Structure formats: C-alpha cells, structure tokens
Prior knowledge:
Blueprint: H1 2-10, H2 15-22, H3 26-38, H4 49-64, E1 68-72, H5 79-97, E2 103-106, H6 110-118, E3 128-131, H7 145-155, E4 160-161, H8 172-179, H9 182-193, E5 196-199, H10 209-212, H11 218-227, E6 230-232, E7 235-237, H12 246-250, H13 257-260, E8 265-269, H14 276-284, E9 290-294, H15 295-302
Parallel strand pairs: 1-9, 2-3, 2-5, 3-4, 5-8, 8-9
Antiparallel strand pairs: 6-7
Amino acid sequence: MIEVAKLYYQSDYSQQEIGTKLGMSRATVSRLLKMAKDKGYVQIKIVDPFFDLAHLEEGLKKKYSLKEAHVVFSPESDYETITAYLSRFAAKYLEQVVEDRTILGVSWGTTMYEIAKKLTPKKVSGVEVVQLKGGISHSAVQTYANETISLFSSAFQTTPLNLLLPVIFDHVATKKLVEQDRHMNYIIEKGKQATVAIFTVGTVRENALLFRLGYFDQEEQLLLKEQAVGDICSRFFDEKGEISNKEINNRTMGIELEELKQKDKSILVAGGHRKVAAIDGALKGKYANVLVIDQFTAKDLLEWKE
C-alpha cells in the first residue's frame, strides 16, 4: 500500500504504470490508493489562494473600517507586475461602478495611466470625468496626466474636465488668485461634487514622481521626507494621515483630502512594498473607503505597526 502511494503521489506514476511495475491490476492499484487515504497514510492538502485573499480582505476591512477591500492576486511581488494586475482589476471594477450621470474624479500618475489604458468603453449617458488635481509641469518627466483623463473620458463617452494648472504653485497668493477664475472654480467644484473618486498614493522616496517634476527645492524635499509618508493628489500626509506641511498644502491645486471622505466611493489603488507606509497613512486618515491592493502588500499592511 505504501509503495503504491509513493509511486503515485511522489513519483507521478500513473495507475497503469504502477500495475505493470508491481505486477497487479489497475483496479488493485486504485483500491490500495483508496485504502491508503482511508487509513490516513496519505493526506491531501489543498491550498486555495482565493480563500487566503478573502481572509486578507476581511482583515483589511476590520483594521481600517473600509466599505470594501479587494485583494488582487499577483504572481510576482515586483512593482511592475503588481501594477499590471491591480490596474486590470481596477478598470473592470470602475466599469461596474460608473453608471448614468456619475461624476467621476480622476487623479494621475503611473498607476492611473495603466488603469486608463485597460478601460473598456461603456455605454452610459450624462457621465462627467473631472481631473482632481492640476496636471501641468515644466519638467520633461512624463506624468501622462492629459492622456489619462482623455482615456477615462473616452471610455465613458464624455468630454474631460481638465484642470489645466500646475499642481503646486510657488506662492499661495498666486494659487488663490487663479482659483477666483470662474472657469477654474467650476472644475474645482466639480471635483468636490464627484460621487466616485479614484486615485493612488505617492511616496517620499528620493525618486518620487513629484520630486522629479521639479515642484520642490532641495530644502522642501528634505522637509517632506522628514515629515510625510506619502501623498494623495499631491497633498502630503504623515503616518497618522494628517497633513504634514500646511504651507505646501496651501500651495497645492486640487481636491482637499477631507473632501475625499464625502464620496460614495473613494477608491485607492496601490501596491508594492515601497508604498506600505503611504497606504497605511492614507487609510488611517480615512481618505479611502474602497481599497484595491495585491496580496503581498495586503499582508505587509496587516502586519504594519499600529
């Protein structure tokens, strides 16, 4: 019985091959394999990855008081693979969420652009797509801000509401003056009215996108690295989810983080070990009520310090 079980389960012999090798019928081999299981000599363990995902989802919902948590399976833990799988899921999720007359607020960045490219056109009417933060930079670094909102708008058969301004101004007075323009004010108000918002988190690492775009001098970058763990819509927050630097925040053009709390669905799409601190801070700040994340980062997040 043990010899038959070893040949079948460990050496991958077929039942016919075992019968030939040991000089017995296939029926006898089958009977011996059943006996081995019945007596407990053979124990089969099935690892269901989707059960594990559901467990992680419940853990995240409980820890951060989320409406929804979607843990997406990624075969590898590198950032590029994770982003590919998260963006595919987020695109499908949005196609279900966006209905007639939905006002959809959209951020920009690498993850957002990947989501935009994977959207399938949906026949809806009265949908409005609005940019949640300024998208103009004098840097040569590509943000795909215009491409992202254009793809979102095309998928939902509407014209984009671009916030054609720098995301961070040099001076608060300049930003306040621009906000008084009725055309710009209209778009900013639309962002506030959005029922669904989708965004990611940035980090405060040396090569963070906002740092590479040239908005901050060296002193400001150092300050943000010391005070903040990440940003949403270019508004930086600390490990508790609180605004880390009010002066820089006052120069930032776009939706206030407090306004994200008012959305029916405030969707954070993010993954990768380097973003764990930023995701944790964002969720502690209650800026998202829907989380789309991979299983590697989900596990890190559940083990993250309180």
